[in-house]
User: Fold these one by one.
Assistant:
Number 1:
Amino acid sequence: MSKVKNIVDLVVREASKVLVEREKDVKLITLAIIAGGHVLVEGIPGIAKTLTAKTVAKLMNLRYSRIQLTPDLLPADIIGTKIYNQKTGEFDIVVGPINANLVLADEINRASPRTQSALLEAMQERQVTIEGVTIKLPEPFTVIATMNPIEMEGVFPLPEAQLDRFFIKVNMTSLSREGLNKLLKRSFHDIEASFEELKPVTNALDILNARNDLNHVIVEESIINYVVRISEFINKHKAVRLGITPRGLMMLLTLAKGLALLDGRDYVIPDDVKEAAIPALSHRVFLKPEYVAEGMDGSDVVTQAINNVEVPRP
């Protein structure tokens, strides 16, 4: 069993003691953390976005911080600033809540573009710069940003460059009837008690060691060509204004490698690429306004690509 599979299986199993019907979401978030990527979570209020992030952070024994994004939040509120120390007569650097292993940026699209941009350096370079002083962030480092799909007022759309920095997008959907029945048999106190009883199943060092397993997964030339043809289909689609970037394709393959390890293989097959395509690519596809008005989104185009691009044969 690979280190990746061992960690993901343990986290998913233990998280199910607190969360209901979130196994797939926890699997993807855990894979993203191991791969060193960031996660965009979209879902309506009250479906456990924050609880999911807290649960994963606790089980992986990661330093966790939460930032509530608001229109009046400033970049310094995220990355930190210099504060005058009366005892020494000097300015000390105080790093903000970005200085954690897992940072929950709650309702990221409520922050102004200026404040959103404060996350870009941290997400890409794993560092922050405070008045000319560069500070490295801890490893592993993952930003989990949440968005509310029904809020239209008082929000700022995320720039394309920032969206492209997210490793995956997770759409957290409502629970099934069976899931609701299971959830409603528990009280808020029961859920909180279950969360408090959770014990870490891994740690930062194990996660960084597991990350090396991804580098040893074999990707045949036919799979690479398959991925390229998927991107060509998407980028040439009549509805697409801006398509998949090279970074997006690399992240697609990285997620496919992780899914292969979870399936007990050290090589990627087309089914891994298909499973990885929606979470890895849908948020990177930007459509022309007239198609958005018709109700299309990026996932529709990615689905068409998966259904129409010929699968390589063994």
Number 2:
Amino acid sequence: MHNFILRELKTKNLLAELNEIGFDKSYASRAVDKYNYKNIKIFGLTVPQANILKQTALSVGADCATGRDVITGKAEKSDCILGGSVAQLSRIAVQLGLQPFGLRNLGRQIEKFLSIEDIPGTKIMGILNLTHNSFSDGGEYENFEQAATHLIKLIEDGADIIDIGAESTKPFAEAVGAEEQLAKILPILDFARENNVEIPISIDTRSAEVARLCLEAGATAINDVSGLDYDKEMASVIADFDCPVVIQHSKGIPETMQINPMYGNLMDEIFLDLNRRIEFAISQGIKKENIIIDPGIGFGKTREHNFEIINRIEEFKVFGCPILLGLSRKSLLNMPDADNDTKDIFTVALNTLAVEKKVDIIRVHNVRLHRMLIDMLDNV
């Protein structure tokens, strides 16, 4: 009896594997789509839409899971999971263009989903906290001279972006007024301008007043951990300045967010909440290309929630917005008594996953270690 040898392929470079076995090179680049499988969750289809989608999927050899009551007719709507190769999904999208009940638009959205490409290279956002009570380095850079020195160090260490904040949003932290934030941030922005700092500077604030005055002073982006919810004027400020904005998911406010955070379906709830925030931003005149999304590690999440987000971070790429991930020195490391050097080592280890999953921006305290990480992984 012949002893067959089997090996599961985990590589994303299927084209190289096809060429290795001697597959027809003139067809290999097209054939890759037949071996690249995806599962897409589609929310809130009506019964006719779900039934047609399932039959269309089956007709091309793919499949679509629906709620049981779609078959019985007892359900009004159902979420669906459409699964198949990229080639099959492309055929489904084309066939949906001929269907009623608004499915032509679903076909277009599937085609758009399949066309999303990874932007090569993870950028490093260096953190400059001007606070007295940040969880990691509160008070270290509250003094202007210390802050200015650290700004230059972050740049020299290889930061692509600097994120400056004067309000701690750690769990149970209290809000800081705009006047106090501006008193710390504006002198650093003046220093950056006087010293010809050219890399982008983001301002970590929930205050529209702080955002407006900092953008006038030379800042280039805003990082709003409330996802535009805290200050109702924030969206109009972003739209007026036509600048990038980080829209983050958070469950609650810093004062209460870590008090027994609970979810029915973690990824669904974050996904739908970010979708709502993106749609709101666009409705307020913010350009889609200016939106960066952040799932909010540690903002209303347990340690288990945080790790699930990291493992499944690629699911947010469907929005077509750059993804920011901030896990530096946070409680998910589970080492509250460790020094920052130790925390940085484990932060780098976790951010290796982020880089491999092609997260667009990682927000970190130790820029030098992460620049070394990215330079090393570029060789892999």
Number 3:
Amino acid sequence: MDLCLMIEGQEGVSWQQWVALAQACERHGIPALFRSDHYMNLDGRHPDRSALDAWGTISALAAVSTSLRLGTMVSPATFRHPSNLAKLVTTADHISGGRIELGLGAGWHEREHEAYGFPFPPTRVRMQMLEEQLQVVLGSWSQEPFSLSGEHYQLRELDARPKPLQRPHPPLIIGGTAGPRSAALAARFADEYNTVFPTLEEVRERRERVAHACEQAGRDPLPFSIMTGVLVGADAGELRTRAGRLAAKLGSDVDQFLAEPPPGWIVGELEQAAEQLVALRDAGVSRVMCQHLLHDDLEAVAVIGERLAPLVA
């Protein structure tokens, strides 16, 4: 099991902090850094928390890193035309020398769409858009001219140049809760399936649904990953200090947070956190995108990369 870092970019992460996080990942052996693709704070209580554009950030980090893989978790199909998205990913792939991954989903935060003027159609329509976006992105990356006459996008004999460095293309991750449509799209298009904040039982159920969809599509099961909150301390004192900072950020009580962490979170000292992660690994999870909300806490990145990751590799 790989442990990657996942940063909520809409929580006021500055460019200097992004660079520091990427450098910390490379220094401490974390193989990949993922970021959310949002333009505003999601809880509505902190409008002052700023957000740099996801693909602008990834392209810039690609230029100042050497080995770290970079990607979104996940980009909404509602934010960008798929031809533009495919070009952004290809550009980042060239800048990085082939270290980019694309997470793609249907989009969900209605207030964000309203604020920025992005249309927010019903779920059924957004899933249709996602399916066509997947076709356009993969078609843009293919070696053959691509055309699509869809309900939402129309392209005629596209031969986008250059192609991505990674062949056959950058890894494509579909995120969701493994509902029938999401699982079917993943089985048809994706290289990996990711689900967020699942309990152990939900991991088993969702992974089974994706595996069944893959079987119906005539392909091997997809690698299955999760994104969830991770709060770990080298000892009890470090854990409590870190939990106190996080509880203050979330507006909760540290004792309550430690006694009853949010569902699906990995919380504990090293051995406790490793035990939870090993159970996920044994249930078929191939990697965990560790949501790190204290984005200025670089020591936590070191603990995850140097001390926790070897216990669950």
